[in-house]
Give the backbone structure.
Amino acid sequence: MDYTKLIKEVGRGKNHARDLDREQALALYREMLAGVVPDLQLGGLLIALRIKGESEEEMLGFYQAMEEQVMPLQAPAERPMPVVIPTYNGARKQANLTPLLAMLLSKLGLPVLVHGVDEDPTRITSAEIFRALGVEAAQDQLQAQQQLDAGGLPVFVPVSVLCAAIDKQLALRWQMGVRNSSHTLAKLITPFAGQESLRLSSVSHPEYIQKVSSFFRQVEGRALLSQGTEGEVYANPQRFPQIHLIANGIQEILSDRQDFENVELPASKDVVATVAFTQECLSGQRAIPQAILNQLMCCLVGAGISGDMEEARMIIEQVF
């Protein structure tokens, strides 16, 4: 490909750059993931795309290229639909409750696959918390499938195992100083074909809800979409977000925003405090935050376990 020509098109600044069509984006991202784009041009393309912002057609092309590189897994037979949870941000100011959400979903009997980074020098990752909880990361396709089939606990697959090419793109952040398209794409990964899984997805600002919802409709994906908590998908215990279900090309609101006062949270964001809080919630020693319970109800509806939120509430009350 003529990378110089492409940079000239996408690198003219936010107001004058031209978007690539889907086929161009697919071809370009295939080469970016294959590692054949020279470093200088790769850096230029990544910065240009960050300044311009990826169009919907570009994201669809990039996503198709990424899908070709993702390690496939099979949904466990005769069990509920798997829930796929991305975790790429970790704890910045408050404790990371993504592992708690995953563990609770497993207790409800749903297969749960969590994927994300192993470490982040600036954040406390879900991987660190899972390790402290005794959840061993899968290191290859066979181990991930065996853990998934066995059930009982969430399966954590590092992105370096699930999609090594995307992991390499993510790592460029530490050389370039800014994120790139891969940080958006990684959160959309599912190793399951078609609508065989329910993806949890979050946005940083409410205005992006419709944009991401459109993406899931375009790829015929099934997802729960909400405003995230510091980039993670778990519901903020103090400010439960509006949650949307996208399925079969239709978007609906499952639960509206709620504010909760006097919510008990982990004493700090560190691993020890977060693990202690998580274990107490799992054992019944501590009340599970209502926002997380609400999110579990949405997951039950989204995965087809219950027909509506009231039925989901009854299931939650029986288990917890």
The first strand starts at residue 83 and ends at 87. The beta strands are 83-87, 112-116, 155-158, 198-203, 223-227, 239-240, 243-247, 250-255, 258-259. The longest helix spans residues 39-52.
